[in-house]
Write a structure and sequence with these properties.
It is a single chain. The chain has about 210 residues and is an alpha+beta fold. The chain has one domain: OB fold (Dihydrolipoamide Acetyltransferase, E2P). The protein is built from six helices and eight strands. It has a six-stranded mixed sheet with strand order 6-3-2-1-5-7. Strands 4-8 form a two-stranded antiparallel ribbon. A hairpin with a 2-residue loop joins strand 1 and strand 2.
């Protein structure tokens, strides 16, 4: 009886050991797949240049007017509530708060740095439907020699508006930083940062389909 029990017990232990090994291998494989994907995404964005431009004025929470040819630039990957819309019914106190916050981060006359990716396949949109430039923007020159890392994206104006809670993620399908921007948005939501601390903001964002 004891021998039969011991054999059965050993079988269970072997099966358990196999399951543990398989689980460990799955985790390791997943880690390498994620690392490979992150490396691949970084490599796609490794090449590019950084241009220096001067801000004429901050238009609203996600748009800058540049001195060069009065070009409008949209902070790509984010969407701030309206504050200067032609239809005044769409402008809200939340939009004014977002605009004021961006003005705290960048001022009229400030020099900013925009990322110009090499995009031979033409996958990244250069402009939106309003003919505004779509760009990642920094207030200090970013070192992109190692690709667009999470830390660099956190330092961008785009990332900071999300993390500070004054914008939501608005990702076009081809933008490889989409997952990170959604994570930044969730961090702000969880922390109750910026607009997420306002009682009516979540309802407003949901009704206006700002939160995806």
């Amino acid at each position: 009886m004891n021998q039969k029990y011991m054999k059965h017990h050993k079988k269970k232990l072997k099966l358990l050991a196999v399951c543990i090994v398989m689980a460990v291998l799955t985790v390791i494989a997943g880690h390498f797949v994620n690392a490979w994907q992150a490396r691949t995404d970084a490599e796609k964005l490794m090449t590019g240049t950084v241009a220096e431009v001067t801000v004429r004025t901050v238009v609203d929470g996600d748009t800058l007017l540049l001195k060069t040819d009065d070009e409008k630039l949209r902070l790509t990957g984010i969407d701030a509530p309206e504050s200067v819309h032609r239809d005044e019914s769409k402008n809200t106190v939340y939009g004014s708060m977002a605009s004021d916050h961006l003005k705290e981060l960048v001022h009229a006359g400030s020099v900013v740095y925009i990322y110009l990716p090499d995009d031979p396949a033409g996958e990244l949109h250069e402009r939106d439907n309003y003919d505004r430039l779509l760009r990642l923007v920094w207030t200090r020159r970013p070192d992109i020699s190692g690709g667009l890392t999470e830390e660099l994206l956190r330092q961008s104006l785009n990332g900071r508006m999300l993390l500070d809670g004054y914008a939501v993620a608005y990702i076009r399908d081809e933008e490889p930083w989409g997952d990170l921007f959604y994570r930044f948005q969730k961090e702000a939501m969880d922390a109750g940062a910026g607009l997420w601390a306002e009682p009516g903001w979540i309802t407003h964002a949901a009704l206006n389909e700002l939160v995806q």
